[in-house]
Amino acid sequence: MDKNMTSAENISDPVEEAPDDISSSSSFVVNAAITAELERNPKLTGNPFDVSMGKPWNLKNQTAIDFIAKIEEKFRRKNKFHGYFSYPTINSTPGNLRAYIDGGDTSFVHAVGQMMQSLKLAGNAVERGNLVGGNVVFVHYKASDETDDHGRFLVVMVAKKSGFDFDSDLQPKKLSPIDTDALRQAALFDLNLFSVSYPKNDGDTYLHFIEGKSKSDFFKEALGCDDAVPNKESVSNLHVAVRAFVAECKLARSQRDKIFEKVVEHLKKRASEKKPTGLSEIQQVIDKELPVGHKHKGKFCIYVNENKYEINSVFEPTTSGAVKGELVDISDLSKNFSCKVKVSSLGYEGSDKPVLLDDDLSYIRIPLDDEARNSIISAIGKKNDSAAS
Asked: For the range 15-18, what are the long-range contacts, defined as Cβ-Cβ under 8 Å and sequence gap of 24 or more?
C-alpha cells in the first residue's frame, strides 16, 4: 500500500485533510471529493479485495473541477436504474449518509470509508470471482451554496489505466480529454429527497444507478439499494416521454401518431414474448420513423435523461401497460359520464378524426355504433318521443 494512503478500516476523522475552500463551476458547488482503491491483493488467500484511501481532493485545482464536471455530465446523460435504500437493512450506507448530512460527528471521509467497506464486503463474496476492481471516486456537490441544500453524493468506479489517471495521493491528474468511457459503474444519491423520504420511501426515488463497462448489480447490492421504479411505472412514464419527445421533433400529427403506434407495437411484442426491453431499443424504434437526417435521431435516450423521466434502462412491459398509453380518460366536471378514447382518434372540429373536440375543449362528439344507439333509445327514447324530453 502506498505510504500516502490509509486503510479505510482504520480511518478516523482527525486524519481528514479537508480543503480550505468550496470550489465551484458554473453549474454546481463541490463540497468534497476523494478517490479510493478497490483492488485484489495477491498476498491474501484467494486474492480478495482490499481497500485504500487517497487524500481529499484539492478543490482549488481546476483539474479536479473539470473532472467532476465531466463525470456529472456523463451520469446525467446515461440511461439509469432508479431506486431507494432498502428498509429495514443491515447495510450501513443510509445511516452513514443520514449522519453525514445531519452535520454530526460523521465526516465526509468517514462516510466514504464506511461505503468502501461495504463495497469490499460485496467484492469479496464468492460469487464476485470475476469482478474487476478499480478506483472509486466520491463527490459531494450541490446546485447552490444554500445551507438547506444537501446536494448530491456521487460514487463512480472507473477502470485503472484506461483514461482516468491519479497521482500517488489519488488526486486526478490533468488529462486531455478526460476519458469518461472508462466508467464501470456509478451511483448518484439525491440527498435532499433522501432526507425527507427515507425510511418511508414514499416520495420520489432518490437513488440512481448507471452501468458502464461493468454489467452487474454490484453497486446496488453493495450499497443496500433496491430498484424502485416498477415495470408498470417505467412503461407509463415512457408513454409520457415519447409523446413529449415527438412534440419536440415538430412533426405532423400523422407522423407523431405513427411513431407512438410503433412504440406501442414494440412494447406489445416484448410483452407477448415475455422479454424485457429498454430505452435503447425504444430509441431505435423512434429513429426508424423519423425523417432521414432529422436532428433528433439518436437523441431520445438523452432527452429522457436530461428531462429526468424515471424510466429504468431495462424493464419488462405487460400488454395491458402497453395498451394503456394509447388511451386517454375523458369525463365531465360533474362525472356524469366517463370514457376511454384512443388518442389517435381524437381531433378538433374539421379534422378527419372520428372523435371531435370543439376549439375550447369544452365538448366532445363521439360516433355511436348500432348497439350504443339502441341502448340509448331503450333508455330515453327517440328525440321526438315525449319520454325523451
From this structure: 15/109, 16/56, 16/107, 16/108, 16/109, 16/110, 17/55, 17/56, 18/56, 18/108
